[in-house]
Amino acid sequence: MSEDWLSRTELLLGKEELSKLRNANVLVVGLGGVGAYAAEQICRSGVGSMTIVDGDHVEESNINRQLPAIQSNLGKDKAAIMGERLLDINPNLNLKIINEYLHKESMNDILQIGNYDYVVDAIDTLAPKISLIYHSLQNNLNVVSAMGAGGKIDPSKIKIADISQSYNCKLARMLRKRLHKIGVYEGVQVVFSPEDISKDAVVLSESQNKRSNVGTISYMPPLFGCFCASVVVNGLLERKN
């Protein structure tokens, strides 16, 4: 495959910067509404090596917002679908696919085997999310973490900030509280929105991974994913977002 598909990127960044992306290695954990879009934009930017992780499969309720979610993919593994898609974008991508949920016990092992330049946390569940962030920092890895896109509808309010500067986001508040208990107060970039959530948009859930479900519009999780990708690309290029 020729490199012509990156000609517009090279025109913007130049050969030297494009080479930085080509030599970079990025881990994306979680391939739902946020993570799948983050992974695709990172791939399309020209990053040469990626590992994608998710143990979930496509459900009908995912169709309103998730990239792998179309009728013909119902029941299929998100990691496999996204792996095929990324390689269809760039057949030369050095891609590792991990089709499993990462638990806090296995998190450190995954982080140590990859020699990653950046980690994208797009996990929905709090405990593994905290574990991924903590072990990324312990391994001196750059990490960007997606906060809650559910219940939000105004894209102009999405922000990028250090975790210590996040506000009016329930997930960010819980994350800060738990991270403080293990001595982490800053050093994690987060994508969040301080937009208020209507109580009518939240219902209790009995699912294994979540205690509640939050209404979500089609474009907000993808935008969170794109913001995460921008943090990664600009970080790899050593530019401020």
From TrEMBL:
GO molecular function term, any single one: tRNA threonylcarbamoyladenosine dehydratase
SUPFAM superfamilies: Activating enzymes of the ubiquitin-like proteins (SSF69572)
Matching Gene3D superfamilies: NAD(P)-binding Rossmann-like Domain
Domain of life according to the entry: Bacteria
GO process terms (BP): cyclic threonylcarbamoyladenosine biosynthetic process
Domain THIF-type NAD/FAD binding fold span(s) in chain numbering: 12-237
InterPro entries: ThiF/MoeB/HesA (IPR045886), ThiF_NAD_FAD-bd (IPR000594), Ubiquitin-activating_enz (IPR035985)
Protein's name in the database: tRNA threonylcarbamoyladenosine dehydratase
